[in-house]
Amino acid sequence: MDVERSSLCNCVVNFLLEENYLLTAFELLHELLDDGRDSHAIRLKEFFSDPAHFPPDQISRFNSLRVADPQSLLEEKEALEEKFAICDYELRLAQEDIAKLKLELKRKTELSLNESYSSSSDIIKQGSELQQKKSDTAISDLGHLKDNERRDLNCAVKEYLLLAGYRLTTMTFYEEVTDQNLDVWQGTPACVPDALRRYYYQYLSSSTEAAEEKIKMLRENEDLRKVKERLILEKDSLVRNKDLADGQIAAFTKSMEATQRDLRDRENQVQVLKQLLEQQRWELNECRAEITSLKMHIEGSHSGKNILAGDTDSFHSQALEKYKDEIKSLQLEIESLKAKEVVAVHSLDPNDSLREQAVIEIHVDKGMQAQPVEVSSEVGELNDAHSIVPQSTGSDSSKDQEDSQPVLMINSNYNGTTSDGNGGLKQNGEMPAINNGSLSKSDELKEESVTNKMGSETIQILADALPRIVPFVLINHREELLPLIMCAIERHPDSRTRDSLTFTLFNLIKRPDEQQRQIIMDACVSLAKNVGEMRTETELLPQCWEQINHMYEERRLLVAQSCGQLAEYVRPEIRDSLILSIIQQLVEDSATIIREAAAHNLALLLRLFPNQDKYFKVEELMFQLSCDPSGAVVETTLKELVPAIIKWGNKLDHVLRVLLSHMLGSSQRCPPLSGVEGSIESHLRVLGERERWNIDVLLRMLLVMLPFLLEKTVETCPFSAVPEPKGALFSSSMLQKLAEGQVEWPAFEWLHVDCFPDLIKLLCLLPQKEDNLRNRTTKFLLAASEQFGEAYLTHIMLPIFMVAVGDDADLTYLSSSSHSKIKGLRPRTAVAERLAIMCVLPTMLAGVLGAPSKREQLTEYLRRLLVKGAITENQAKHEAEIFYAIRFLCSFDEHHTMIFNILWEMVVSSNTEMKVNAANLLKVIVPYIDARVTSTHVLPALVTLGSDQNLNVKYASIEAFGSVAQHFKNDMIVDKIRVQMDAFLDDGSHEATIAVVRALGVAVPHSTEKLREYILHTLTNSLCTSLDISTIDVDI
Question: Which positions does the entry assign to HEAT repeats (predicted)?
Fold first, then answer.
């Protein structure tokens, strides 16, 4: 695929430029340009055209250097090779002389050696004798070489020379070996062992140098043997070290396992201590409740201060003693509990100790230390009450009587009160009656602790039961389990259980529909909000990755949706790495709905990327999805992904350049319509279905990017103010200032300097049948003229296309730097002129002059082509191409009235050639109009032409009637055709009859039953008439 080749080439270019392989990159630039892959060379062009990297003065200095031509280099190479051969020959002679001198010197020094070197001399003598014996052995003793051995050696030498690249030496060797055919050889190493072995033995036995070499080889073998032994010893030591390291690793592993076990034990101990802390806290709350009840009792006793002192002194003294004892026991128990809690807190995890200790100290300091003071004060108040009671007067007797009943009840309670071992109060074995308000706080604390404990147990029970419950719930009701699953995933402490529940969440429904997928996705988003980024990355995203290759596309679609909706709840670096990789794999999916979802979610993902490091990768995915064979994927890409990438990347100019390059590349890679060089068909391309689809989609993408181009053009305007009203953004005065070259405006000039010329090149490659692509180009041109305004259409667009079709145009509103490129669009040859009229003229008529503001100019231009041009020789040569352009213009209904007005002028003209052209033009445009237009405009014109006295005009109208009969089955139209054909036949002209038969014969396969009967009747009558004429001729 083009996108994949482009991605690989981009990787290579990035590597070459980053590693500073500039020569390789420069060579790659030329290779890409030679192959026509301009889109792949965009970045290389920008790099090598940057004056910061390559200063102009340095380049000019390099250009001034002399460059050797290939012929001189070849001559120098041959001279050097010849010189090298001579030097090699002289070197061999010198080596032979040196060897002879060494031999003579050795013989002379053997006589003068002293006794200290006797042993070595004996060894040398023995070696010399051995060599002498071997040299004395004649070659004949080894036997003559066989023919196959000689051939094997010759072929081996030949192969070596060829592999080494010595081709001239190989040719010489061929010439010297005349008695053997060196081309016939098996070419395996087994062919030459015997011959090589024989020559090797002969070499060892015939030279002193060989003996020295053998001794040297023996010494080297001895050294190698010692090295081998040393290496073996080193290997053994390494093996021992490896075993020792393995033992240490095993010991470390065991110690690590022991440490992990110890860690788990400590964690369990921490959990136990936490539970103990909770239990101590609960007991502390119980003590607080008991102290509160004690205070209430003291307050109740205080209310009995009006009771007679003589009756109650003994009772109060006993009660006070009991209360003091109970208060002291409670204080001791509270201190012991406080000491236990502090010890438990210190034994917990260091991170939790400070927080727990702070909580305990707050509760103990504020609750425990204050209580004894309050109780003691209450006891003091009670003693004061005893002293006040005897002094009460008779005026309080009524009040004392009213209070006597509750006081007696309290006294009776006191009489039956005993103290248990824990400091609690009992009344006949039961707890004393306590006020409901005093117990509310204690009950709430108890309920809270019990609720927490029950909550953890409930989560555990829920996590264990859900995987067994889900399969037995109806599919349409399983989404009702989502709150339970989410609660269990969020609150369960075990990660493995959470992974299992998350798997159940993603696989809740085997093949979820759109509504069910959205429900599951909403649950996942809510869960991601609650659990945070880390758990979303470690628990939810792995489930996405596991489902990416699922056999059901509904599940893969769920993965695609999760990429766009969960990306907000993960870290930024995960979005452009893992999630982008998931999207990239989904783009390659075989299901259309998956690729569509991937395009949609990629558009949602872009705004969350932390940077633009992955821009080129995303742009590549955009072009891949844009050229997708599915229309749904293309629509989603054009509507959502393309605008998102332009807004995110802010690289509109780069996207537009790559888009135009892809368009031209898709058409240029197609084969030509004809292989005859120089013909017009050799310039046109045969588009395949894939290429036609790609070009159509890219033209649609270009139309989508036009508003963004206009926005960027307005933002980068170099002038102080831009008019606001739509349609007047670019005035004539502004265009004139820009043409003077005072300022630069790249965003504005791209459209007419790069885009329009490339579109014209594309149009010149399309054959006549590619009306859909021309129609798409026309829509783009109309949109450009509408958005950029009337002045831009008149002074920029129209002159460019007028030059492209070969007409003269005013280029004063275009910058001088672009004149050469615009003038290069003018056709220079007859073939180019015909190609321009056939390919560019239809688009200019419909897309440039077809704008609402140019209708009058379009009418005048067509009148010049059809009416005034009918008498010119140049227009007559391109009559067929002009008719094709008018036919394409007829595909737009708004131009029908104007075209038929001009045609009627041609019909009523006195020029015969113009009438024939009118008939031919009507024949061409009939397939592109409806029955109403045919009845009201075409048939009256043809009837008028059919009644003309000129036979050429009449016969031309007959052919046009046949085209009408071929394309319409309306009864009224058929009746009019029959009447006119009868009129032609009534003339009795043989040529007219033949013309009628030919015209109606073409319409037979597409006509109605009524018209076919008429055609058969006409043929029968014509045949009978011809037979009667032939009979009369025979009789005569």
Answer: 579-613, 938-976
User: Is the C-alpha dihedral spanning 311, 312, 317, 322 positive or negative?
Assistant: positive
Residue with tokens 């809510």: 526
Asked whether residue 585 carries a pLDDT value surpassing 70, the answer given is yes
672 beta partners: 685
Place of tokens 């020379």: 161
Tell me if residue 659 falls in helix, strand or coil. Answer: helix
Question: What's the confidence (pLDDT) of residue 156?
Answer: 65
| 730-749 core/surface letters (b: 16 or more CB in 10 A; e: else) | beeebbeebbeeeeeeebbb
Rg (CA), the chain: 53
Answer whether 939's CB lies under 8 Å from 973's CB. Answer: yes
User: Residue 406 CA to chain centroid, in angstroms?
Assistant: 87
The partner residues of 685 in beta bridges, in order of sequence, read 672
Alpha helices in 539-614 (DSSP H): 541-546, 553-566, 572-574, 580-587, 592-606
Chain centroid offset of residue 881 CA: 44
Q: What residues contact residue 712 under an 8 Å CB cut-off, 6+ apart?
A: 652, 747
Task: Take residue 91 and report the two structure tokens written for it.
Answer: 């070197």
Cα 688 from Cα 670, distance rounded (Å): 7
> Residue 419: which H helix or E strand, with range?
strand 417-419
Q: How many other CB atoms are found less than 10 A from the CB of residue 51?
A: 10
Which pLDDT band, with edges at 50, 70 and 90, does 299 fall under?
Answer: low
Tokens of 1003: 């319409």
The label of the residue with tokens 């393309």 reads 642
pLDDT of res. 729? 67
Which range, 2-16, 339-353, 573-587, 771-785, has the best average confidence (pLDDT)?
A: 771-785
Residue 816 corresponds to which amino acid?
S
As a whole number of angstroms, the distance between CA 668 and CA 691 comes to 10
987 φ/ψ angles, rounded to the nearest 5 degrees: -65, -25
Q: Which two tokens stand for residue 439?
A: 């117990």
> Both tokens of residue 177?
């070996």
How far out from the chain centre does Cα 469 lie? 40
Q: Residues 493, 460: contact at Cβ < 8 Å?
A: no
Res. 12 pLDDT band, cuts 50 70 90: low
Burial 118-144 (b: 16+ CB within 10 A, else e): eeebeebeeebeebeebbeeeeeeeee
Other residues' Cβ atoms within 10 Å of the Cβ of residue 357: 16
Residues in the chain: 1036
CB burial string 160-191: b at 16+ within 10 A, e below: ebeeeeeeebbeebeeebeeeeeeebeeeeeb
| Cα distance between residue 369 and residue 378, in whole Å | 15
Name the percent of the chain in helix, strand, coil, to the closest 5: 80, 0, 20
H or E element in which residue 5 lies: helix 2-18
Tokens of 695: 């070009």
pLDDT digits (tens, 9 = 90+) for 127-157: 444 444 444 433 334 455 567 776 776 676 6
Residue closest to 980 by CA, chosen among 929, 950, 931, 1014: 1014
- Name which of 514, 599, 596 is nearest 554 in CA terms: 514
What lies within 8 Å, CB to CB, of 3 at 6+ separation is: 620, 623, 624, 627
Tens of pLDDT along 902-953?
Answer: 999 999 888 888 899 899 999 999 988 888 888 888 999 999 988 888 888 8
User: If you write DSSP's letter for every residue of 786-848 in order, what string do you get?
Assistant: HHH-HHHIIIIIHHHHHHHTT-----TTS-GGGHHHHHTTS--SHHHHHHHHHHTHHHIIIII
Task: Write b or e for each residue in 214-242: b if 16 or more Cβ atoms lie within 10 A of its Cβ, otherwise e.
Answer: eeeeeeeeeeeeeeeeeeeeeeeeeeeee
Contact by Cβ (8 Å): 992, 981: no
Least confident of 275-284, 355-364, 659-668: 355-364
